[in-house]
Design brief:
With 164 residues, this protein is α+β, with helices and mostly antiparallel strands. The chain has one domain: Alpha-D-Glucose-1,6-Bisphosphate, Chain A, domain 4 (2-Layer Sandwich). The chain is 31% helix and 45% strand. It is built from four helices and seven strands, in the order αβααββββββα. Helix 2 packs across helix 3. It is globular, with a radius of gyration of 16 Å.
């Protein structure tokens, strides 16, 4: 039995139809060209040891770092600044395929934010891929601004890792 129609309905529910699932509050949409093939980028998006190298939170400094964990379909990033943990990001993968990721996103600590939903699609072949990100269901303007900066910095860093 194929799960493709179920997955497509989930994507339609969360990302193409208004006021469903996580709502139409504040949403982020970005497209970033990355000079690599989709399979390498997928690994950087899903493996804890690679996630730690490119996810960058606002106000990070030289003493900031991330520790990524994955257990089954759940993930968690613990963020440390100046030697102490100041927050975590956690969620569950609802879909994790070679060119499509759909996962929940919730922050605890400083700042704490309500659960939202992220979709990442990879388009292209061989040496050039477009990463498309949609982050939906952000509950406040402050959370939107913080997460927009986080995604901008992080995706820029990811693209730079593959540029060299």
């Amino acid at each position: 039995m194929s799960t493709q129609p179920v997955v497509e309905r989930k994507l339609t529910k969360y990302f193409r139809a208004p006021n469903q699932g996580f709502g139409d509050s504040l949403n982020i949409a970005m497209r970033v060209p990355i000079q690599s093939d989709a399979s390498r980028i997928f690994l950087a998006l899903t493996r804890p040891e690679y996630l730690e190298t490119w996810i960058t939170l606002p106000e990070d400094n030289a003493n900031s770092y991330l520790v990524a964990w994955q257990h089954g379909s759940s993930y968690r990033f613990d963020h440390y600044r100046d030697g102490r943990r100041n927050g975590s990001i956690c969620g569950d993968y609802r879909m994790c395929r070679r060119r499509k990721l759909l996962f929940t996103w919730k922050m605890t600590g400083d700042p704490a934010m309500a659960e939202s939903l992220v979709y990442i699609g990879l388009h292209g072949n061989f040496a050039s891929t477009i990463l498309e990100l949609h982050h939906r269901g952000i509950a406040s303007t402050a959370a939107y601004l913080w997460q927009h900066e986080m995604w901008s910095r992080s995706l820029d860093r990811l693209a730079r890792l593959f540029a060299g």
